[in-house]
Recover the amino acids of this structure.
């Protein structure tokens, strides 16, 4: 035995109570895998839905318990400083779970499309006879539930990771299930597989950048812990160049997940090809997780060097808002339109992040939640407009929906108004919060571009509204499926929260404000 | 009394909801009842008034509760002598429009692929969507009242935005043949204006650190650099110039007015435009007077240009509603010129002009709508001799037109007289020239309105007018129009009705904004 | 190279140098090498022997699956070695043992799943 080898290893203390939410999610995901392996086929669906929802509700309850027992006020580091349990961490974990529960409702829906929105056997060659057969008859496979639990658990780990390695592991834990889930659409298999491959390849590249950035920063600071990097940034005698290259690489990896321009090219294709409930999950939860990571890295590790990198990220934010908005105007497919709008929205959150002060954190947190709920409801509605080929996502097919389905069109109009930032919707309060924070942080240019692009972005939304109400439906117009209980619940939650946070934003803003203190 | 203040917003909002949910006729009646209650509440606001505080704005009644403390948003409502006349005008016109809609529902336009919009194939198809029209009118009322009553900049913006979409829907669904283009143009212009307004609000709030209008007006721009004030005023003034509208940003107005259904035109001309002038006075001049002083000459020049251009365009107009729409550009030019003088007389003139224009142009649009419904055309060439066929209608039209051209003794006169007077009092060669030009514009207004009357009411009756049915005025029409006629007479004979209310707050405002 | 934009300038120069170096290498290559195109040069290289059949062949997915499973367990053993060195020391004890058991159990779960899904059967 070589004593030198073992000498440095000390047992890290792990505060299991503080990380219980993550453990619950990942543990229940393992239970889901077991259920998948050993239960008879007919039992799997109800058991998996139950396991999935129970896990998330239990996780959420634990998070609320932790928040109430002062973890937000007295933040703590655990597992050898690898995990931070602090206000933003708990808020983001809670946000991931709340949005995850709503997304799970959409994923579990089986009455809109017979057998569910997912394929029975993903490996069957697309377009073959067997594929057509399984699209008609066989119920969805149920692996989607443990996969989504793993993804959500990974996201929760990601937003509380306090060193770069843990963050990378968490990144992969939530990315890999998402790659798989993208490939599982029941209809349009080729598009779905293309989406998955594209997401996987580009995601792998971005991960490689991330790892390379970790290496650079380790070379710079001699540690992967955020705190040590922050200390090294002030006191290290080494060249800053290493640090900035490392930061740039990290930022590429993170901004890829957040879908910021110019790392956004995967977004429209993946959002379009992936099964719509999964798209909803990605647009809401993944965005929360990605910005959780960005917030923590910028505010904990690189706060003191902000004068150097803020202009660069500012340019990215402007590009993201402007290009997202411009390209959204040209879209003819509702899912792609929502994808580009999600890109532009990433720019708005970045604007809030770049305020680099306390209300920058709270406004970004608030924005992420408001956007998440609205986008979940919007994608939920997209699943309902169908013709014989599945979802009718081409915009021209939506003409005249206001006459055929006034309730659906009304709710969708409301969501579009929220996206457009009309007052009394959460879209307005969210944008107002991030723009005020950015102004307070001296980012006037960003706000100018933000306001301009949000007007530009209002047009595609209003065009959808005009299309639904002021045009006659075509003869073969798609039907509007009657939503099952699960989808109805998801839509109702999304729309009500959008209204509630528009009229009474204090409910959430106060929580976000009291949570907006990172532990360093 | 704070209850009444909230009621003016809550009652129409609930009424809108009820009107949209109830069956058609019931919905329309319930909506009208809500509009009537809102009107009563707004009138009652004048009682038991106690000027609050000693600031530049002394609201009679106010409500100030935190809305989103984290964002520093407050729900601060209040009403004073400047806003109360406009509040009552809004509730009155909405009530009249809702009542009018109970009697007659405009037929929604129909788009069919392959059918020329507005062509003969577009037959009238009565349906049950009248209740939605009432609901939208009430929603617009909530927004406009909110604008007039809010004493917080952000709240002001919120209400300013609320108006946009219902108005768009009113034009786009119930409008005339080219409603789609008109509605789109309206939205484009107004959205553009909203952005500028939001940017201006951000500049003011970020610079001053508060969004409270009372505090901001009291400070009179103190704490904001001159450059910031000029930028903020430019942004705000542009935003309000789109809404008012000020030449050369007025081109949405003729289309929107012409295509909108009668009640839409009445609300548009009667109160929607006032949001622009009121905003310019209370928000732009009130919060950044330094910027206002710098840019006032420019504003004055543009306003005078609007007066002249509006009048000249009117002389060449061949369509009834379009002519009235362009006359609005000229009238609002007078109001803006009054504000641009930055004097107490000018502000008073602007406020009286606002009210007079709301009453008379509202009436004119009602009459034009009635005439178009009967004659199925608005072309001046195809109208004529109305006096012989329908003397009642012709008489009212003459009354409204003469009032609008500024005959002494009717409402339109005072606003224009005081404006010219204020410009002369302001002194300096520029303002003298502007005063003279504005007076010429006023004379031109007489020319085009008399031309209108000659073409429509006089002369031999042409075909379209001979076939006019019914020739008599319906009871509902009389009920809807008589308050406007009476008020126009009252304001014309005793302008002090309005002036007495506005004198004190205008004086306070002028004191605050004068360095 | 100092001042606010100094580090950006360094980065920019680095990028430029990288591009120039890349271009120079290829240009030099292009200038020095002989240039004799031949269709034979475009065929697939198979140890000097003429290639047989198409170059688009389907590979058996099971090779990959088995390879994955092997790599998975091989990599996990890396974590077992340092653990084996320390778990008997004072201060580590039962907790360490249980934690590693959980770790291995999760791995086993994966194996179990693979077995139930029939991945381990070759035929």
């Amino acid at each position: 035995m070589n004593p030198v080898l073992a000498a440095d290893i000390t047992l890290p203390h792990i505060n299991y109570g503080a990380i219980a939410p993550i453990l619950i999610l990942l543990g229940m995901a393992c239970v889901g895998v077991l259920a998948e392996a050993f239960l008879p086929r007919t039992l799997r669906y109800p058991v998996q839905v139950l396991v999935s929802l129970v896990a998330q509700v239990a996780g959420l309850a634990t998070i609320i318990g932790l928040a109430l027992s002062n973890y937000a006020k007295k933040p703590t580091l655990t597992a050898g400083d690898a995990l931070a349990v602090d206000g933003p961490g708990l808020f983001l974990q809670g946000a991931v779970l709340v949005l995850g529960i709503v997304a799970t409702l959409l994923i579990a829906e089986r009455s809109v499309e017979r057998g569910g929105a997912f394929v029975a056997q993903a490996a069957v060659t697309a377009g073959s006879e067997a594929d057509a057969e399984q699209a008609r008859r066989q119920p969805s496979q149920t692996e989607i539930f443990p996969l989504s639990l793993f993804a959500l658990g990974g996201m929760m780990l990601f937003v509380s990771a306090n060193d770069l390695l843990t963050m990378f592991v968490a990144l992969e834990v939530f990315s890999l299930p998402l790659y798989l889930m993208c490939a599982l659409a029941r209809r349009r298999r080729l598009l779905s597989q293309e989406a998955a491959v594209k997401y996987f390849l580009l995601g792998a590249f971005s991960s490689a950048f991330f790892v390379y950035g970790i290496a650079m920063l380790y070379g710079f600071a001699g540690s992967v812990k955020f705190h040590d990097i922050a200390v090294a940034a002030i006191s290290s005698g080494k060249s800053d160049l290493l640090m900035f290259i490392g930061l740039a690489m990290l930022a590429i990896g993170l901004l890829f997940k957040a879908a910021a321009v110019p790392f956004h090219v995967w977004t429209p294709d993946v959002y379009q090809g992936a099964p719509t409930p999964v798209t909803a999950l990605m647009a809401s939860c993944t965005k929360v997780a990605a910005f959780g990571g960005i917030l923590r890295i910028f505010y904990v590790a690189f706060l003191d060097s902000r004068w150097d990198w803020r202009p660069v990220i500012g340019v990215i934010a402007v590009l993201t808002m402007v290009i997202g908005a411009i390209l959204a105007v040209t879209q003819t497919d509702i899912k792609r339109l929502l994808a580009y709008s999600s890109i532009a929205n990433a720019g708005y959150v970045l604007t809030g992040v770049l305020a680099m002060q306390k209300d920058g954190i709270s406004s970004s947190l608030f924005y992420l939640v408001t956007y998440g709920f609205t986008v979940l409801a919007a994608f939920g509605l997209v699943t309902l407009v169908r013709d014989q080929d599945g979802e009718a996502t081409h915009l021209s097919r939506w003409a005249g929906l206001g006459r055929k389905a006034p309730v659906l069109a009304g709710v969708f109009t409301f969501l579009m108004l929220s996206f457009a930032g009309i007052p009394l919707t959460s879209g307005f309060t969210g944008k107002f919060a991030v723009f005020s924070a950015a102004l307070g942080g001296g980012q006037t240019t960003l706000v100018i571009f933000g306001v301009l692009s949000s007007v530009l972005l209002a047009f595609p939304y209003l065009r959808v509204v005009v299309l639904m109400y002021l045009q006659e439906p075509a003869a073969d117009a798609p039907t509007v499926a009657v939503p099952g209980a699960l989808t109805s619940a998801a839509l109702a939650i999304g729309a009500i929260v959008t209204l509630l946070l528009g009229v009474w934003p204090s409910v959430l803003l106060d929580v976000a404000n009291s949570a907006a203190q990172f532990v360093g | 009394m704070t209850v009444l203040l909230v009621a003016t917003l809550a009652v129409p909002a609930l009424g809108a909801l009820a009107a949209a949910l109830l069956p058609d006729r019931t919905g329309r009646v319930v909506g009208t009842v809500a509009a009537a209650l809102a009107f009563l509440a707004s009138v009652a606001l004048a009682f038991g008034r106690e000027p609050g505080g000693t600031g530049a704005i002394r609201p009679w009644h106010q409500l100030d509760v935190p809305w989103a403390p984290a964002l520093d948003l407050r729900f601060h409502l209040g009403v004073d002598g400047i806003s109360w006349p406009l509040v009552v005008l809004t509730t009155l016109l909405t009530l009249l429009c809702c009542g009018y809609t109970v009697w007659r529902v405009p037929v929604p336009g129909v788009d069919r692929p392959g059918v020329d919009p507005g062509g003969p194939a577009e037959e009238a198809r009565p349906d049950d969507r009248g209740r939605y029209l009432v609901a939208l009118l009430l929603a617009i009322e909530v927004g406009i009242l909110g604008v007039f009553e809010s004493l917080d900049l952000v709240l002001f913006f919120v209400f300013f935005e609320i108006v946009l979409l219902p108005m768009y829907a009113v034009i786009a669904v119930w409008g005339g043949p080219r409603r789609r283009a008109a509605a789109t143009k309206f939205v484009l212009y107004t959205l553009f204006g909203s952005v500028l307004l939001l940017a201006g609000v951000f500049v003011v709030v970020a610079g001053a650190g508060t969004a409270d209008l009372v505090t901001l007006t009291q400070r009179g721009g103190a704490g904001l650099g001159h450059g910031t004030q000029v930028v903020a005023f430019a942004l705000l003034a542009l935003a309000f110039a789109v809404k008012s509208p000020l030449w050369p940003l007025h081109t949405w107005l003729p289309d929107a007015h012409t295509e909108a259904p009668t009640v839409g035109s009445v609300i548009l001309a009667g109160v929607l435009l006032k949001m622009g002038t009121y905003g310019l006075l209370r928000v732009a001049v009130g919060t950044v007077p330094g910027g206002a002083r710098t840019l006032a000459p420019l504003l004055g020049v543009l306003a005078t240009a609007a007066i002249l251009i509006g009048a000249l365009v009117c002389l060449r107009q061949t369509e009834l509603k379009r002519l009235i729409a362009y006359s609005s550009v000229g009238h609002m030019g007078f109001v803006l010129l009054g504000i641009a003088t930055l004097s107490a007389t000018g502000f008073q003139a602007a406020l009286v002009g606002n009210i007079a224009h709301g009453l008379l142009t509202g009436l004119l649009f009602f009459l034009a709508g009635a005439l178009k419904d009967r004659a199925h055309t608005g072309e001046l060439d195809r109208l004529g001799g109305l006096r012989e066929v329908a003397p009642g209608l012709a008489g009212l039209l003459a009354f409204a037109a003469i009032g609008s051209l500024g005959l002494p003794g009717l409402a339109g006169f005072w606003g224009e007289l005081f404006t010219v007077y204020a410009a002369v009092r302001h002194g300096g060669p520029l303002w003298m020239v502007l005063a003279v030009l504005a007076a010429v514009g006023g004379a031109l207004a007489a020319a085009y309105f008399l031309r209108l009357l000659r073409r429509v009411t006089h002369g031999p009756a042409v075909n379209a007018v001979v076939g006019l049915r019914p020739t008599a005025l319906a009871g509902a029409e009389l009920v809807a129009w008589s308050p406007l006629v009476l008020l126009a007479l009252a304001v014309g004979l005793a302008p002090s009705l309005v002036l007495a209310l506005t004198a004190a707050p205008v004086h306070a405002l002028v004191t605050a904004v004068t360095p | 190279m100092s001042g606010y934009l100094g580090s950006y300038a360094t980065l920019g120069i680095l990028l430029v140098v990288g591009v120039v170096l890349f271009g120079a290498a290829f240009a030099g290559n292009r200038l020095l090498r002989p240039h004799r195109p031949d269709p034979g040069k475009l065929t697939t290289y198979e140890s000097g022997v003429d290639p047989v059949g198409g170059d688009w062949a389907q590979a058996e997915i099971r090779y990959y699956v088995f390879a994955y499973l092997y790599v998975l367990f091989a990599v996990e053993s890396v974590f077992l070695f340092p653990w084996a060195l320390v778990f008997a020391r004072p201060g580590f004890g039962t907790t360490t043992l249980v934690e590693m058991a959980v770790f291995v159990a999760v791995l086993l779960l994966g194996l179990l799943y693979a077995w139930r899904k029939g991945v381990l059967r070759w035929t």
User: Anything to note?
Assistant: The mean pLDDT of chain C is 83. Chain C touches chain A through 20 residues (CB under 8 Å). The helical segments of chain C are 6-32, 61-86, 93-116. Residues 61-116 of chain C form one domain.
